[in-house]
Amino acid sequence: MSDIKTIDELVAQDVRGKRVLVRVDFNVPVAGGAVTDDTRIRAALPTIEKLMAGGARVVLMSHLGRPAGEGFEEAFTLRPAALRLAELLGAPVVFAADTVGPDAQAKAAALGDGEVLVLENLRFDKREKKNDPAFCEELASLGEVYVNDAFGTAHRAHASTAGVAALLPAYAGYLMQREVSTLTGMLESPSRPFTAILGGSKVSDKIKVIDALMDTCDTLIIGGGMCFTFLLAQGKAVGTSLKEEDWVERAAAMIAKAEERGVRLLLPVDAVCADRFAEDAETLTVSADDIPDDMMGLDIGPKTARLYAEAVAEAKTVFWNGPMGVFEMEPFAAGTRAVAQAVADNAEADTVIGGGDSVAAVNKFGLADKMTFISTGGGASMELVQGEALPGVEALRK
To answer: The whole model's pTM is what?
Structure first.
């Protein structure tokens, strides 16, 4: 992080009276006009409060959901996020009814020292995702300096994450700093043994991450739907389980690479199978060698869960991304719950949850407060782990 300009460097220069344009990640779930999970808003508070305390005039911008990009859509307004932010700050928050239009311009110009403005959803304008130069200029005109505190969108070269950073002095907020330093530190100098747990549905989605982790971890645990492609590569029958025939050869190469590198690769030894993909399906727990032809594996079995938990208990660094099964359905939640509990129980380890469904799982099981670090960026954290340059981070380099 030493080559990235930080918010502390900015505040040290005195921000009183300056308009600071801040990219936050307020892409939060909303129901009935209210935010139902404010985790991402809370994650941005240290940066916002630091700027407010320094007397900055804070202009916040974010996207929410996937609007069409053709203008205002009530379902995706950021107004509920602005209202929740005001409650969390215990201070008024001004809301602009547009993103770069007359209302945004007038309200940004009228801000007083220490006051906060939230712009309407960036993605109501299709130019945001296109990193359109004119849109970048319009956004930049609302601030004098720029802070990016939205790690979850750092892998996107959009106007608010990359374009604006080229037009204004650019700095990393506290959340951005912590995300980048935690994930890169885990890869560059982990406490050992280092155990990585990867789940999810497809090998094709995770192959680059598997490849990268194979170079640094001591144990690699595979679960989720993608484990069946690995089992297929071992010559095992997997019934009607999710599998990627085109990736069997690549999975076999990964198994060989693990052996070559001395990495312990753990695959399921048993599985919970079902006759169909449904909560009320008929289930059967079988050895990984004996999955019936007419059944699909939807979770790791109890023997596998114990094997994985033992590997996690020995670790000094744990990285987890992806569930072990279809944890949203109770009959297939036990494997993910067991792994989550094992990670939570290892108080001696640095435990990093790499965004996405793993975060949903630790929240569902009430274990989030037992983890060392929970990433707010699923796609961004995966790209960083697999060695990709993130446009939103590169834009902050000195």
So the answer is: 0.88
